[in-house]
Amino acid sequence: MDIKSITNVYNNAIGRAIVRKKIPHFRILKKSSTFQVGLGYKQRRFLYDDINSSAASRICNNKSFTKYFLRQLGVPVPVGEKIYNADDLEREFKTIKKPVVIKPVSEMWGKGISTNITTLDGARRAYAIAAQFHGEYVIMEEHIMGDDYRILFLGGKYIAGLKRTPPFVIGNGTDTIENLIAKENAQRKKSVKIIKEILVDAPVINFLKKNGYSLKSVLPRGEVLRIRMTGNISSGGISENVTAVVHPSIVRLGEEIVSYIGLEIGGVDVLTSDITLPLEKTGGKVTEINQNPDIVMHTKPYIGKPIDTAGLFIDYMFPSREDAWIDIWCAGKKIRTQRELNKNLRVVPKKVVYIHRGSRRMRTIACPDKPLFNYLISNRTYSVTL
User: Fold this and answer.
1) What span, in angstroms and rounded, lies between the C-alpha atoms of 365 and 355?
2) Which has the closest alpha carbon to 303: 364, 361, 233?
3) Spatial contact of 105 and 137, defined as CB atoms under 8 Å apart
4) What are phi and psi of 30, to 5 degrees?
5) Distance CA 171, CA 293 (A)
6) Distance, CA of 354 to CA of 90 (rounded, Å)
7) Cα–chain center distance at 293
8) Is residue 243 a contact partner of residue 307, using CB atoms and an 8 Å limit?
């Protein structure tokens, strides 16, 4: 129950920001990114970076719900249908504009997505992949040509924009595509930037096959080959900071979307050929809204200047250190640091603990450290005297 297990190369920025700002913090579920920041009635609990209401998160977790809400707002979205079975797939594929995208209804990080599908056989293979994930149906929608962008909002305000380019390899006339990917992944492990290894999964194998390649193919020297169509950072996409060039109309549209859905933090995904122009000029569309927008990927983009989105995230919840701490007194001394707090909570002998809510003493308990620890985490306590 500490911050250590989230301080790894990919998602350590939130943990470091909490420690740097001297905010009290506890892990709630072991080996998970579910944790509490702040004490007593000042606490906030969240999963990684999702601090949204359950209703807002539920809307974003279901791509069909999201698209329904966006349509109500008049937001341009790809035309698509729910696919429950193979018969639905064949019937709807005949009518929808090609190429198409097929994806699970409730997955994140680009899992199970197949793109640029032009044939029924390709659609069947993509449906089989997407159907393996959670949900009663999958979604088939028109494939919007253009680059993939994530527009990040916090507290209703625009704070960052990121272009996500699909991973690629460059042939040397000797190595297979599989070896080129392995060498690229080895280099990525050494990078101080946030860049994940290229994920090789069923959509990648199908994408290579569709373009006449396999993992055993040898690329001619200098040939550039995209490994997958999607640019999700979690599967190997390349990130580029575009915060300063996102067109103001796209920013305003994103602000309206997160306000309408009720998101404290949200990532608006846009496909467009030029992020510096309004969507009506490029034919761009809003494809998804993310309640878990992975704010850390903005802190060390592969291309461009970093943005301390993790620090902004903690500042949004706790503008000052005092906004996170309740009064905790021990032997007449006020506890002011995480180290002092941990030290007192580790003491094994029983203690008399006075729990206060407002100016009233609500409860007096004699307990060892663990129940006290749970009390500090779980209750909307105003102050504690050890």
Assistant:
1) 8
2) 233
3) yes
4) -60, 140
5) 34
6) 67
7) 3
8) yes
The vertex-363 CA angle with 359 and 368, nearest 5°, equals 125
Which pair of tokens denotes residue 241? 């900071």
Residue pair 293/49 in contact (Cβ under 8 Å)? The answer is yes
pLDDT averaged over 10-residue windows placed end to end, the chain, 386 residues = 39 79 78 77 83 88 86 89 87 88 75 83 88 84 90 96 93 94 91 85 84 92 88 85 97 95 95 96 92 88 93 94 86 81 59 56 54 61 74
Q: Which residue bears the tokens 């461009």?
A: 304
CA distances to 102, 234, 255, 343, 386 from 373, in Å: 47, 35, 39, 11, 12
> What pLDDT is attached to residue 323?
94
Tokens 């680059």 found at: 147
Report the alpha-carbon distance of residue 1 to residue 100 in Å, rounded: 45
Angstrom distances, CA of residue 22 to CA of 299, 321, 324: 20, 7, 9
- One-letter-per-residue 3-state SS of the chain: CCCHHHCCCCCHHHHHHHHHCCCCEEECCCCCCEEEECCHHHCEEEECCECCCHHHHHHHHCHHHHHHHHHHCCCCCCCEEEECCHHHHHHHHHHCCCCEEEEECCCCCCCCCEEEECCHHHHHHHHHHHCCCCCCCEEEEECCCCEEEEEEEECCEEEEEEEEECCEEECCCCCEHHHHHHHHHHHHHHCCCCCCCCCCCHHHHHHHHHCCCCCCCECCCCCEEECCCCCCHHHCCEEEECHHHCCHHHHHHHHHHHHHHCCCEEEEEEEECCCCCCHHHHCCEEEEEECCCCHHHHCCCCECCCCCHHHHHHHHHCCCHHHCCCEEEECCEECCCHHHHHHHHCCCCCEEEEEEECCEEEEEEEECHHHHHHHHHHCCCCEEEC
Q: Domain ranges for the chain, please list them.
A: 167-228, 326-386
Determine the Cα–Cα distance for residues 233 and 216; give it in Å rounded to an integer.
25
- Would you give the distance in Å from CA 351 to the centre of its chain? 42
Closest CA to 72 of 275, 286, 291: 286
